Amino acid sequence: MLLQLSALLLWLLLPTLTCCNESNARSALFKSNSETVYDAARIARTLVDNSKLSIGNMATIFPDDGSELSSYPFSMQEYYASCHSNGSLTLIFLPISRHSKNIIHGRPHAASISVTATVPAASRPRVSLLGNVTVFTETSKVPDLATIKECYLAKHPDARWWLPDDEDAAHLAYWARFDPHAVYFVGGFGGLHYIGYIPLEVYQEAKADVGLLDDSYTPFREQVQQ
User: Per-residue pLDDT tens for 86-120?
Assistant: First the structure.
């Protein structure tokens, strides 16, 4: 009789034990497949380098000049082109723009540029690059000018109307380079994806993967969760 009761009890508990074991196994699988900082760096470089639009959200700070908006943040979309192997970005610096005014009067000439996945969502990756802007007021001092120009126009053909050193351009413009000093990454939800800073050297050495984040891409960790 005791043996029969034990067998019945085991039979009743089996679904619970199976559920718990499956839950533990799934948790272990999530943990073992969580994004590493190196995964995050590769995804971040893919977001920035292979963006279809190459338009990021730039943030700057109004100069501390006693004006009404002094020290307030300012954020707006900005063209960029990833033309450097180390992750630095090419910009066209227009002195007339609000961002340019904030940058040139700031010490250092600081800005941040954030880029999101093609379809922004809480579960999708995004990255914020925080760094410094170098403005080349003399075109002759722009390193690899021909390559930089070709790279930028490949991303933004409409920019031909406001290129630096063009007497017929709509506005005065200079070439500029944005050099990231810090990289903050949010891969999605924290249980599966990397959230935090990526060491600069890891970001600079990472390589973009063209097919990693296209519109049909579903991260393996999300497939497991389903």
Answer: 999 999 999 999 999 999 998 889 999 999 988 77
Kindly tell me the number of DSSP H helices and DSSP E strands found in the chain. Answer: 6, 7
Tokens of 184: 């903050």
- Rounded to whole angstroms, how far apart are CA atoms 128 and 96? 25
> What count of other Cβ atoms lies within 10 Å of the Cβ of residue 164?
20
Cβ neighbours for 169, distance < 8 A, ≥ 6 positions apart: 161, 162, 163
Q: Is residue 14 part of a domain?
A: no
β 55-61/110-116 pair status:
antiparallel
DSSP, residue by residue, 125-176: -EEEEEEEEEEESSGGGSTTHHHHHHHHHHH-GGGGGG-TT-TT-SS--EEE
**Would 218 be classed as within a structural domain?**
no
Residue 126: Cβ-neighbour burial (10 angstroms; 0-12, 13-18, 19+): buried
Total number of domains in the chain: 1
Are 189 and 122 in contact by the 8 Å Cβ rule? The answer is yes
65 Cβ contact partners less than 8 Å away, ≥ 6 residues apart: 105
Q: Domain for residue 16, yes or no? A: no
Task: Write down the pTM of the prediction.
Answer: 0.79
pLDDT tens string 185-194: 999 887 789 9
- 204: Cα within 13 Å, side-chain hemisphere: 10
Which CATH number is 42's domain given? 2.30.110.10
Question: Most distant CA pair in the chain: distance in Å?
Answer: 100
Tell me the residue range of the domain where 199 lies: 26-204
Q: Is residue 102 part of a domain?
A: yes
